[in-house]
Amino acid sequence: MTPLDRTKTTGDQTTKGQRIPAEILDAVRRIEIRTRRLVQEVFSGEYHSVFKGTGMEFREVREYVPGDDVRSIDWNVTARTGDPFVKLFEEERELTVILAVDMSRSGWFGGHERSKIEIAAELCGVLAFSAISNKDKVGLVLFSDRVEKYIPPAKGKSHVLRIIRELLTFKPEGSGTSITAPLELLGSVLKRKSTVFLVSDFWDQGFSSRLSVMARKHDLVAVRVRDPRETDLPAVGLIHWIDAETGRELLVDSSDQQTRRKLISSAQDHDRHLERLLASRGVDLIDVSTVESYVEPLRTFFLAREGHRGRRGGRR
Questions:
Q1: Which end of the chain has fewer beta carbons closer than 10 Å to its terminal beta carbon, N or C?
Q2: Maximum Cα–Cα distance across the chain
Q3: Mind listing the pLDDT tens digit for each residue in 49-65?
């Protein structure tokens, strides 16, 4: 597999020449039905109002009328015709949305009905269907401790279904997490301002400089998907702890108060550091849990963005 695997799928039944298992197709269809309904009933209008175009594009010229901004006069046309003409512009509507999703082994953690990866796949389905219903393009980056796969932005339902399918079936080569890797890739392939949703549990360090560069050039949104047990260890006695990314094994006495306080404090410190970093770079954070619906956190994000735009009277 190459880091930038752009192999295309053909239809819903095969990928890379292999038949897709029926249970995967059923899972994709369930996510499609649920996420399309959410987009139609909840998120369509909010997405449209929040994610406007990234600039203005020329539409036409017309004759100057009193009250027009003299700065919009097209002097070339004016000189050619002998009469004053002004340029008319309209907002450039089409956006590029990138879903950068952490596929490291810690993403399969989840002691309840669904893992973090499954939650991420459904949430990305909502974002992707919202984008294409708004005539925007959607792309996908899958990463672990490296970039595993890049699917360039495109439109259409079949493209979104492919993205969901990849999220549910992709088997990464790497096991760890590198937030820097997808940010470096996107920094090189995105030639115009885009909206990037970075979906991860963010158990990583050392990516602040690359995040700063990405946040200056693009609209970057962090989506933190976590399981409550990662930050609040239950008191259930001895636990055989295996780090999914490193394979390191520990025997932890979760009933020992000092051990629990140390683990919880470490997780809280990590979270506070991440939140300060994101806030200082102007990156919005959406917190999603494996034990609660992602609908409210996503709605809260859209409403906050819409309110922010309204107060400023323009784009973010």
A1: N
A2: 88
A3: 787 655 555 668 889 88
Question: Do residue 60 and residue 186 come from a single domain?
Answer: no
Domain holding 295, by residue range, is 14-50+95-312
Strands 219-226, 195-200: parallel, antiparallel or unpaired by DSSP? parallel
Residue 220 lies in a domain: yes
Which neighbouring-strand residues pair with 137? 96
Q: Give the CB-side neighbour count of residue 93, counting CA atoms within 13 A.
A: 11
Can you tell me the distance from the alpha carbon of 314 to that of 275, in angstroms, rounded to the nearest whole number? 26
Q: How many helices (H) and strands (E) does the chain have?
A: 9, 12
In b/e form, how buried is each residue of 75-97, taking b as 16+ CB within 10 angstroms? eebbeeeeeebbbeeeeeeebbb
Tokens of 295: 């609908």
CB 282 within 8 A of CB 143: no
Verify that 170 and 26 share a domain, yes or no.
Answer: yes
For 307, residues 6+ apart whose C-beta sits below 8 A from its C-beta are none
Q: Looking at the predicted structure, is the pLDDT value of residue 108 above 70?
A: no
Rounded distance between C-alpha atoms, residue 136 and residue 151, angstroms: 15
Q: Which of 70-74, 101-105, 180-184, 255-259 has the highest mean pLDDT?
A: 180-184
Residue 7 resides in a domain? no
* Strand 18-19, strand 14-15: pairing: antiparallel
Query: CB neighbours (10 Å) of residue 289?
Result: 16
* pTM metric for this prediction: 0.76
Tokens found for residue 88:
């008319």
